[in-house]
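# nightly structure sweep
# worker-07 picked up a monomer target from the shared queue
# config: single-sequence mode, recycle default, output format = structure tokens
# input follows
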Amino acid sequence: MQTGQFRTAPDAVRLIVAKEGFRGLFAGYGSFLLRDLPFDAIQFCIYEQLRIGYKLMAKRELKDPENALIGAFAGAITGAITTPLDVLKTRLMIQGQTKQYSGIVSCAKTILREEGPGAFLKGIEPRVLWIGIGGSIFFGVLEKTKSVLAER
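# output follows
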């Protein structure tokens, strides 16, 4: 749907299954995990370290906007760090039946050879922006939820 190849989600499912079989619905799943597992680990580590450091400097509990701002920084930094993995995941997912790449390593080598190292950072600006915003919302809500539940 993101690439504009399909009008609706049911159309996408129907056409992908018709052309690539049921496995086509899971194209790029391995690279999705390769991107998301490190992403989550990195983001939580950065968030916790920033939060601990800020809390030590402030010598008090953090306010909701501070937690959200720290979450935004953690998200933005993590988004930037994992952009190359996102590029690989996206290329593998949208290749369809062409099977231009045989896997993650093949994809990385082809991108490097044909487009150069800068191609691994394609889309970094919007990625950092939207993941920063998402980190702000996620960690802001997480900390607020933790404090509300702790009061009960």
